[in-house]
Write a structure and sequence with these properties.
The chain has 86 residues and is an all-alpha fold. Helix content is 58%, strand content 0%.
C-alpha cells in the first residue's frame, strides 16, 4: 500500500506501463485516481458573517408587533433597549 498519493500515482503509472502490452485486458478501462483539490484559504473568507443576536431579536419583535401581540409603545421600548446594547 502506498503511503502517499504521489507514490500511489507513481505505482499506478508503473503498473500500466509494465503490464499493458502483455495483459491489455488488465489495464483496459483503468484510470488514475482524480486529482485532489486543496481548499483555498480564500474559501474560508467567503462564508457570510454571523447574524448578530440583536438583529434576530429585532426581527422577532417586529413580527410580534405585526401580529398585534405587542403594542406600538411596547415595541418602541423594547426596540430602544435592544439598540442601546449595541
Amino acid at each position: 500500500m502506498a503511503q502517499t498519493r504521489d507514490k500511489a500515482c507513481s505505482a499506478f503509472d508503473q503498473f500500466v506501463t509494465t503490464y499493458s502490452a502483455k495483459y491489455p485486458k488488465a489495464t483496459d478501462g483503468v484510470t488514475p485516481p482524480p486529482p485532489t483539490v486543496e481548499p483555498r484559504a480564500s474559501d474560508a473568507s467567503v462564508a457570510p458573517p454571523p447574524v448578530r443576536d440583536e438583529v434576530v431579536q429585532l426581527e422577532k419583535l417586529n413580527q410580534l408587533r405585526t401580529r398585534g401581540l405587542v403594542t406600538d409603545a411596547e415595541y418602541g421600548e423594547k426596540r430602544k433597549a435592544i439598540l442601546d446594547r449595541l
